[in-house]
# Entry
Amino acid sequence: MTLDRHHGTTWTKAPGAPLLTMLAWADKATAAGITIDGTVAVSTDAGRTWKAGAARPDTPAQAISASRITNGKLEVLLATQDTVNAIIDGGATLGAAN
# Structure
C-alpha cells in the first residue's frame, strides 16, 4: 500500500503495510483488505498500520466490502464464487453473512 499526503503529487510505501489484492474503506480511517495469501488485514488509522487476522475463505475472495454496522463494529463482507462471508471481529473469524 502506498500513501499520499500531498493530493497525488508524492507517494510513499506505508511501512509494514501488507501487499493487498483488494481494498475497501469503511470510513476515512478504517480499511480492510485481502492480502496475497487470502487473509484479511485491517487498518484503523488510514493505512499507517495494519493488523492481519487469521480469517481466510476456502475459495479466493472475488469482492470485499467494509462498513460500520449499527453497534459501531467493523463489518467486512467477502464474496467468493460460492458464498458471502462476514467478519465482525477484526479478521479473526469468518462466518456466513446474514
Observations:
- The mean pLDDT is 84.
- The chain is about 0% helix and 40% strand.
- The beta strands are 2-4, 11-13, 20-25, 31-35, 40-43, 51-52, 63-68, 74-79, 84-87, 95-96.
